Structures are given as C-alpha cells and as structure tokens.
Amino acid sequence: MSEAGSFTAGAAIARIPQPVASRRIAALERHLGERLFDRSTRRARLTPFGRDMLPTAKRLVHLVDAMEHDARRARQRPLRLAVPDTCTTRDLAELDAEGRALDVYLEFRPAPPAERAELVRTQEVRAALVAVPAPEGAWTVPLGLAGAVRPTTSVIYLDTLRVGRTGRPPRRVWLQPEDDVPHIRDRVIRVRDSVGLAPTQVTVADSLTSAAASVFGSGDLLLCSAVQARELGLHWRPLGETSLARGFDVGATLGDDADRLRTRLRDGIARCLGVPDAEGDE
User: Fold this and answer.
1) Which phi and psi angles does 110 have, rounded to 5°?
2) Phi and psi of 119, rounded to 5°?
3) HTH lysR-type domain: which residues (predicted)?
4) Cα gap 12→242, rounded to integer Å
5) Can you list the pairs that 101-106 forms with residues at least 24 positions away whose Cβ atoms lie under 8 Å?
6) What is each CA distance from 4 to 19, 38, 44, 92, 186, in whole angstroms?
7) What is the secondary structure of 125-170 as a DSSP string?
C-alpha cells in the first residue's frame, strides 16, 4: 500500500477488493496496537511505526512467496507406486499421463507380490498394488490357461494333461511369479492333485519371460490373464475345474494416497492390471 500510494491502487496490485484491503489493514493495526498508515491525507503514507514495521513485513511477504513455491514443488513430488511386473511400459506411461492431468505425479517400482507388500511396510514406496484374494480386491483379473495351439474346446481341463502311454513328455502348466501367492498357487496345486497330475506338471517359473518361452513351441500351458495371452500371441481359455482370478487392492502408508488411487485413477490402474473390457476375451 505504501509503495502504491493509495489503498485502492494497493488493493488492485494485491488483486483484492479495496474494502477488503482496508479491513485487513485495520485488523492488523488493532492486533499490533498502533496505526500503520497516516489517513489524514489523500495518499496512503506510513506512520513512523509503519516505517519501522516495513522491513519485517517485506520479509514475511518473501517467506509467503517461498512457501507457495515449496508447496507447488511438494504437490509435484512423485508418488512412488509399486506395481506388478506384468504391467506393460505403455500402460504405465498412459497411467502416468492420466495422473499428471489430475495433478497426481507417479513414479513406478515394478516388483513381485511379496516384495510390493514389503516395500510399503518399509516405506520405500508410498503405495503399492498388493495381491489379495479376488473377493477382497478393488480390481479383479480372471485367469485361465493359454497355449501356442488354439484349443478346440471352450474351456481347458487339467485332467486332460494326465500322462498316458504315448511316451510323450508330460505337458506342464507354468505359473508366473505374479501368481505365486497362496490364494492362486495352492488352489492350482489342489486341482493338480485331485486329477492325478504329477507334481512337476505345475511349475512356478522365475519370470513371465521364461514361462512364455517354455510354452512357445510346446504343448505346455501358461496360467495368465486373457490380456497377457493376447499380448503374447497365445490362445486363452478359462480353467475348467475351478475359477481363478487375481485380486488387487491399494496398500499405502497414507489413507489419502490409497483413496486417490482407488478413485481418481481406478480405470487407468484396471488397464495396467489387465482387467478385461468384456467377457469372452481370447
């Protein structure tokens, strides 16, 4: 106000109505117990007390500007999110772009299920898409079996993999690390045992790449989602003996982060996880 020469000009510079500026100055004067401006002339001139307070006031203005700058930077600090290894680079990039449009800045840390949960516990990431039983999940991804040869049936039964007398090597079902969790792995093993397959006919691979490599050019099958099968060029069918699905939820150190991911970025996360757009994807 003192540099502008009047309350009206000063209010315009501060982008507030002149009556509001006058009320705020009056309130500050009451708080400090002394007048800051001489109102006996048409110009807004500082009183001696006001001139003494001016350096401190300028420092406060600079501090407010610095705080606003720091707040902008803090809002743009990435939210480190642990995600499944199965998420593709393109899907993560699209999710990142969607987040930026909503002022949510993401930084991804791909990891297998157990490691994702541990990263949240040790606060190495702010949030993670954690593996949970399908009924408990915010997102659900149906699983089935996929192979290099197109099946002639609408579902695949594990009992068709029983070793016969042909002398051919036994066909295997490969599980990728994402499905090496009790609520999926143990159910597959129970079906394996109930239909009489050999223990080695259900195997957990070291990676999705090695699992897919074992399926290409053989009669082996990969436990995966329909979206993964399509990306790999495999033919997918549901499992006949039981219904399997991955479940995912958000684990986070702050409830606000979890709510933001579940709601504002729900569709983008669903795409990354391979939630099907429609039933019957092959």
Assistant:
1) -65, 140
2) -65, -35
3) 1-47
4) 71
5) 102/264, 102/265, 103/75, 103/76, 104/79, 104/260, 104/264, 104/265, 105/76, 105/77, 105/78, 105/79, 106/78, 106/79, 106/81
6) 16, 14, 8, 51, 76
7) SSEEEEEE-GGG-SEEEEEEEEESSPPSSSSB-GGGG---SS-PPP
| Per-residue b or e along 224-251, where b marks 16 or more CB atoms closer than 10 Å to that residue's CB | bbbbbbbebebbbbbbbbeebbbbbbbb
Q: Specify the pLDDT at position 280.
A: 41
- In the chain, the domains with their CATH numbers are 7-74 (1.10.10.10), 79-129+250-273 (no CATH), 139-246 (3.40.190.290)
Per-residue pLDDT in tens (0 to 9) along the chain, 282 residues: 445 445 566 565 666 777 777 788 888 888 888 888 887 766 778 888 888 888 888 888 777 777 775 566 656 578 999 999 999 999 999 999 999 999 899 999 999 999 999 999 999 999 999 999 999 999 999 999 999 999 999 999 999 998 865 557 899 999 999 999 999 999 999 999 999 999 999 999 999 999 999 999 899 999 999 999 999 999 999 999 999 999 999 999 888 999 999 999 999 999 999 998 744 444
pLDDT digits (tens, 9 = 90+) for 30-81: 888 888 888 776 677 888 888 888 888 888 877 777 777 556 665 657 899 9
Q: What tokens were used for 82? A: 């642990």
Residue with tokens 């295997």: 172
Structure tokens at 5: 């020469």
